[in-house]
């Protein structure tokens, strides 16, 4: 019997409408759990989640049975409805249109997962390093694992 396998890992980022600080720290973990359920319902898997008050970072294993755009649409729509129904004072909550997505190689998966969930440098600093060509998970010198010229990017 023929079988299909897909190992598609994505780092997905999207923000709240107008980048408003509307994701409350007291319910953000529940939001991430709920998003994990949305993904499971679509045969995907949430590997890590994190973020701040105005945007989220999700590390996702994408199913071969759904398109990326459909998945993002569903995550935003269903989670927004959940926030409205379950979080007092959040009736104005909304996600901004659009998203950013980056593929993640299997060799970098552990490191991106670690940074998405717990980011000692901060998620924004970590992804600024990555988008400028640094690979913080491979850096070895210094207390934060920096030392190849990338430390200057932290202050940007």
Automatic annotation (TrEMBL):
Q: Where is the Transposase IS200-like domain?
A: 5-117
Segments crossing the lipid bilayer: none
**GO terms of biological process kind:** DNA transposition
Name a GO molecular-function annotation: DNA binding
Instruction: Fetch the SMART domains from UniProt.
Output: Y1_Tnp (SM01321)
Question: Which Pfam families does this entry report, sorted A to Z?
Answer: Y1_Tnp (PF01797)
Q: Which SUPFAM superfamilies match?
A: Transposase IS200-like
User: What's the protein called, per UniProt?
Assistant: Transposase
Supply the source organism's classification: Bacteria, Pseudomonadati, Planctomycetota, Planctomycetia, Pirellulales
